[in-house]
Amino acid sequence: MNRIIEILLVEDSPADVKIAEEAIIDAGVNANLHVVNDGEAAVRYLCRQEPYKDVTAPDIVLLDLNMPRMNGHEVLEEIRNQKNLREIPIVLLTASERCDDVETAHRLGINYYLRKPVEGRCLGELITAVQDLWH
Amino acid sequence: MDFYYIFAGSPNTPHRVLTRLALSGKGRVRGRIAENSITPAEILQVLAGDEQWEVRASVACNPAAPREVVEILSKDENADVRYSMAECDHMPFHVLDRLAQDENPYVAERAKCTLDQLLVTRAV
What is the layout of strands, in order, in the sheet containing A90-94? Predict the structure, then answer.
């Protein structure tokens, strides 16, 4: 894998950000990780609104479910309703044991979900497949 | 985890990604695309000519398969493809009727059973 993959991590928990960072390192993927801490910031980032006007568009979004302001489902709905963001690959990160949380996310258009804590090898395989197929 | 297989079967995978996956060397992945209800007709058309009978059978039984593809596959040289179609209760009546006359007795018998079940369901 030569090209650097741009990953947007939408996560409010610093501990979970750390775990995801370590998983990406363990995965051995060549990645730039960008982190925003709530759903509203994620939508602004993806729509390139202030203060994210000059950011690089992410190749994949890792989206936490439970967040302040806008939760993962609301972010997902917002993203999928925008034509230019409809195809961006989104992976839901969740510690939720509730099947309906995942089902709702599927209905709203996630491409996959990973249970927390995220494991490096699995994340690496997922990112490799996304990079190969979407880009 | 085979993410190629997972994406091939997902209703949220974009069409252009399904197209790329359809060119995959893995029959298992192509078969999964052939089953996916959102797979576009033009990809199903290509997969209808797949070298692996399992892929062709999945196309034949996909409710999204174009009518002309179903017609062609109902005359597939492989009896397993025709048998798969004979099991499908969403197959058009005239296709099941034809399969009920199939040269292979297992295919014919299976198509007759499916037709009988459909007639009972309709009667109820």
Answer: A31-36, A5-10, A60-64, A90-94, A112-115
